[in-house]
Design a protein that fits this description.
This protein is α+β, with helices and mostly antiparallel strands. It has five helices and eight strands. The radius of gyration is 15 Å and the shape is globular.
Length: 141
């Protein structure tokens, strides 16, 4: 089993040395600190990501695969702070529930935002799952 250090090195070598191209020719840039955001989780469910997630890290190569997947479901992203859709955010869904978000910064350019498995399940109080919410968003054109 790989260790956190090995995953971090793999992330930096694969994603941070230069932009990666999406299937539709958007050049996506990654920052080294994106590793912590993407592969750590909150041990107390308080939004403070303080624990390395081996489960998330094993999907490290799914990021690149998702960028290259021309069969991904594409949607306009949601800006939670402004409470509205943001046509500069693109959300891709592959393998049923793997979600990747990029932020378009210019013509054919973007920054990586996040990637995760959308595995929340509905409850009687909140029956709509993360995937339901994403799929209700406008399609990416």
């Amino acid at each position: 089993m790989k260790q956190k250090k090995e995953y971090r090195q793999h992330f930096e070598m694969t994603y941070c040395r230069g932009a990666l191209q999406t299937f539709d020719s958007i050049s996506v840039r990654f920052r080294k600190e994106d590793f912590d955001h993407c592969f750590f989780e909150s041990s107390r469910r308080n939004r403070i990501k303080d624990r390395f997630s081996q489960a998330r890290a094993t999907r490290i190569d799914w990021i690149k695969a998702t960028l290259k997947d021309n069969g991904a479901e594409l949607y306009v992203g949601w800006d939670g702070k402004k409470k509205r859709y943001d046509t500069h955010r693109r959300v891709a869904i592959v393998v049923k529930n793997y979600v990747l978000v990029i932020h378009i910064t210019g013509e054919g350019k973007a920054n990586f935002v996040t990637a995760y498995v959308a595995d929340t399940i509905g409850t009687p109080e909140r029956p709509i799952t993360t995937l339901d919410q994403i799929r209700r968003s406008p399609k990416w054109e």
